[in-house]
């Protein structure tokens, strides 16, 4: 990997988020563009952006913030520098039954983060330079789209380091690349370059490293022009296929959100609050 390339000015100016809980972050940086893109950066370059429990906690806060801010319409997940997107769980934090933070409790908290990212009703794009390995590889897979730099390298290490992800890391991977490829990726623990990842359908496009952020922002801006409700429903629908009741609940949640915004939905609430019978008679289901 070359680490001497200069990344040219990004296509937009990022304004750091200053709300109190986020500004105290140690491992994660959150920046917002003026047009509603949130960039969430795992900032532990000394360990190729491996995540420890604190990192996951901060990522959860960051994704919750992105979910709750109406002005944020697209999210970029990335790693600091251009040597790594993320190298997975920090092996030095791995204890007896999981990864152990300051509170001494072993957790597999990255699994909660996967669910949170899939449930976010906004598009999440992985911007990958360098290594996306182990749990870092799974993180990019869980994103809706992946833009890879030409120096990106992908792979799993679980069977080499005594770990595995039998959740999205296995079954969702098999849906993306097919059963034979997924088994190869996990059983052999090889690394794949960006071109190979593109051929397998693991990433959406590959661009020169210098163009990575410009291209990612371009994709975000194309998405910003589209209907947010259509996108949220489409994401939920695609997740529902693989997420069972949880996926259906996400999809149904989007329907409920729309229903709440309708006159019919509001009539039910108003009637309750006004202690009267609801007047649903004038509402019809139009074919
Ligand atoms: C990425 C690799 C291939 C890069 O190799 P390279 O370029 O030779 O660099 P290194 O010298 O190896 O690394 C530079 C420095 O960074 C440290 N480092 C790198 N990765 C990690 C890491 N994951 N944890 C801790 N430190 C890391 C190196 O030690 C080195 O530091 P110094 O300079 O001080 O020596 C190569 O680095 C590599 O192979 N890394 C390890 C990849 C890996 O095995 N990751 C863990 C895989 N497992 C998971 O991610 C589990 C995820 C998870 O949480 C999970 C998911 C589902 C279900 C359960 C779980 C669960 O919680 O277990």
Automatic annotation (TrEMBL):
One of its GO terms (molecular function) is 1,4-dihydroxy-2-naphthoyl-CoA synthase activity. Signal peptide: none annotated. It holds the Pfam family ECH_1. GO terms for biological process: menaquinone biosynthetic process. It catalyses: 2-succinylbenzoyl-CoA + H(+) = 1,4-dihydroxy-2-naphthoyl-CoA + H2O. One of its GO terms (cellular component) is cytosol. Keywords: Lyase. It comes from the Eukaryota. Its EC number is 4.1.3.36. PANTHER family: 1,4-DIHYDROXY-2-NAPHTHOYL-COA SYNTHASE, PEROXISOMAL, NUCLEOSIDE-DIPHOSPHATE-SUGAR EPIMERASE. Belongs to the enoyl-CoA hydratase/isomerase family. This is 1,4-dihydroxy-2-naphthoyl-CoA synthase.
